[in-house]
Amino acid sequence: MAYIMVDIESDGPIPGDFSMISFGAVLVDEQLDKTFYGTLKPISDKFIPEALAVSEFSREEVLVFDDPKQVMINFKAWIEETCQSRPIFISDNNGFDWMFICWYFHHFLGENPFGHSSYNLGSLYKGLVKDTFKTFKHLRKTTHTHNPVDDAQGNAEALLILKSDYGLKIRF
To answer: What are the record keywords, sorted (predicted)?
Structure first.
């Protein structure tokens, strides 16, 4: 299996009514050198200024981002080129990140190359340390900047540490 760590930025809480404006993905392996970055033009006139501000993009900037369908076509092609086996979606907050990626794949391409399931990095960590109040975020090496590639990179680094230092049985 090929684990793809994903992070997204949006201008609101749900896909369809609001837009995914950028996302990053990293193939989880020892090198962490295979990445994807997409910026997507909004699909809706609705946006929440505070949500958009997290990404540090203005509404004017995102309005000239790339066509969402083409970005999803490019992402699917990257997944197919990068993964030698079944791609597995994993993220820090898969309830949020998965919701957008899954919706965009199905809406624009009619399919999702990740299938119907995803993994949550935080839940993996909580299970390993047997404490639902603990967070893995101290394991990141790359600073969490809200640039989705940086954030996916830091989360991928944490997953590698879960394997090497915490005994997580996982194959990349």
So the answer is: Exonuclease, Hydrolase, Nuclease
